Amino acid sequence: MGALLVLYSTGYSLFNVPYLAIPAEMSDDYHGRTRLLSFRTFFVAVGQFVGLSVSGWMLQHLGGGRAGYATMGYCLAAVVLVTELGTFFGLRTMPIAPVTISSARGSLESFLSLFRNSQYALLMGAKFVQLLGVSVSISTSLLFMLNVLGAGYAGQANFSLAQNVAIAFSMLFWVRVSRRIGKRVSAMIAIVIYALVSLSWLMAGAGEPTLFIVIRGMVMGIGAGGILLMGASMLPDTMEYDYSRTGIRREGIYSSGFAIIEKAAFAIGPGLIGIYLSRSGYIPTLRGHLVRQPDSVHWALYVGTAILPAIMVLASTVFLSFYNLSEEKLNRLRPNVRS
Q: In the chain, what percentage of residues exceed pLDDT 70?
């Protein structure tokens, strides 16, 4: 299983690193990039929605078991293959940007050199604490639904479906808001929305109505959509800023740095919350049957679902308050590059 996960993650990175680098070459329009990447965020939500709902539907009709899960895996793998090949062939006519060679020697030196770009360093600092908070929330969400709210797997499914639908359809809202007030301020508004919904779980308890769970999912999805879109659209801006300063195109190195930050956050967050839950006395389920948890674990799940994600996501505003890549600043730098 471990070997297959390594193989899967390697394939994901081989696709995702150039995929994140390409938008910087597709458009040099500040707001056009936001609109372009809104399609990416929309289909991220659609993919998660399909993965959650269709996989559950398939398992139900296939009868579960080893054969049912295997068939589901083959079908979802086919979807992944078709969509990735569609991306590859769909971009075959895209103009290729001129290639320049970085003076940095070695992958580590190339990676560290990225952080001389202060705007990229600030964006990555913000993304790291955001993803750390999100990974902690994801790790505890189902346990919170099962052991604190008593909403079961259906509660988690309802919450996730509402969240992904809201992420998808919030793109129209965030593209317009970003054009009016800018990416940084839009990101901060989205962060506050996400943090407030996270903290609202402190008011939830056993027997929480499904309607309240769905409403939280929808509002949190709106906040998450803004965070995802603004972060993705600011990344190519930092790439252009680097090109304007150095005259070197390093989009691939920048996107690989982003991928490293993403993977690190999603490795550290679950690990830390797992240690915290174990120290709090969490009792594992026995053959799929829930075990009555001590009060200390209930409090730990409130911390992991409500408090820590809110604190970490809000901490990203400290980095973003110093981020200053506006449309006007990039436009001023472009004549220097062309000359």
A: 93
Identity (one letter) of the amino acid at 117? N
Which CATH number applies to 2-95+107-338? 1.20.1250.20
Between the CA of residue 198 and those of 265, 306, 310, what are the distances in Å? Answer: 19, 5, 6
Distance (Å, whole) CA 194 – CA 313? 8
State the average pLDDT over residues 4-20.
Answer: 88
Q: Judge residue 54's burial from the number of C-beta atoms within 10 Å of its C-beta, 0-12 exposed, 13-18 middle, 19 or more buried.
A: middle
225 contacts 41 by C-beta, under 8 angstroms:
yes
d(CA 223, CA 194): 5
CA distance 323 to 315: 14
- Furthest-apart CA atoms within the chain: distance in Å: 69
pTM for the model stands at 0.87
What are residue 289's DSSP bridge partners?
286
Burial of 34 (0-12, 13-18, 19+ CB in 10 A): buried
Asked if pLDDT for residue 339 goes beyond 70, the answer is: no
Summarised one tens digit per residue, pLDDT across range 237-279 is 999 898 888 888 888 888 888 888 988 999 999 999 999 999 9
Q: CA of 8: how far to CAs of 94, 119, 266, in Å? A: 27, 31, 15
For residue 2, give both structure tokens: 């471990």
Q: Which of 226, 171, 221 is nearest to 197 (CA)?
A: 221
Three-state DSSP class for 286? strand
* Spatial separation of the C-alpha atoms in residues 45 and 49, rounded to whole Å: 6
Q: Where are the domains of the chain?
A: 2-95+107-338
* CB-CB contact of 316 with 127 (8 Å): yes
- In sign, the C-alpha dihedral spanning 128, 129, 131, 132 is positive
Report yes or no: 199 and 208 within 8 Å, Cβ to Cβ: no
Residue from 203, 172, 132 nearest 45 by CA: 172
